Amino acid sequence: MGYHLHSKLCSFFQACLLLSLKIAVTCGAYEFKVGGLHAWGIPTKANAQIYNNWSKSNRFHIGDSLLFLYPPSQDSVIQVAEEAYNGCKTSDPILAMDDGNSLFNLTKPGKYFFISGVAGHCEKSQKLEITVFSSYGDFYPPSSAPSVLPSASSPSYATVFGPMPMPSSSERSRTHFLASVIAGIGAISSVAFLNLF
């Protein structure tokens, strides 16, 4: 009987450890600077695929965010539907951002499409497509569009996509600290318990 109890308790603490690690990873949302070292702008001819290559080299999850940096007097960024992305059409954006320091929060899994809001820039490869995975790593296509169109007085985009203020460094530190504490408690309690037997 003692062996079965020990086995069940070991399994319980291993599950607690895995849950603690999962919480720590989930709390670690990441802010991606679009283009890496490059600002949001027209790519050079030699590096025309910079945004596609950058997107493919990263894995985006719910809770992450995209930071677009650009001179506000010279550029902007708009979120568009796939058809508008493929045709470089700026006339019907889902969301428009033009402050030069635009933060876009990834709130749902699926594909997102961004282009420059300045005419002619998209045709010069200033466009970005990303795929967002759920926090568990699975990709689920976005649900179909609503059957009721918004009224003329309502915004043409969902407010959940809008730029949100970036949390202060103390808030980010608090989140990472909490995640570290939870993971540490899980690991220490598991090791301590296993050493009892």
From TrEMBL:
PROSITE patterns for the chain: PHYTOCYANIN (PS51485)
Keywords: Disulfide bond, Glycoprotein, GPI-anchor, Lipoprotein, Membrane, Signal, Transmembrane, Transmembrane helix
Matching CDD domains: OsENODL1_like
Cellular compartments per GO CC: endomembrane system; plasma membrane; side of membrane
Signal peptide location: 1-28
Positions of transmembrane segments: 177-196
Principal subcellular localisation of the protein: membrane
InterPro entries to which the protein is assigned, alphabetical: Cupredoxin (IPR008972), ENL_dom (IPR041846), Phytocyanin-like (IPR039391), Phytocyanin_dom (IPR003245)
Annotated GO MF terms: electron transfer activity
Membrane topology: Lipid-anchor; GPI-anchor
Domain Phytocyanin: residue ranges: 30-134
Subcellular location: Endomembrane system; Membrane
Protein family (similarity comment): Belongs to the early nodulin-like (ENODL) family.
PANTHER family, per the entry: BLUE COPPER PROTEIN (PTHR33021), EARLY NODULIN-LIKE PROTEIN 8 (PTHR33021:SF44)
Name the record gives this protein: Phytocyanin domain-containing protein
Organism: Amborella trichopoda
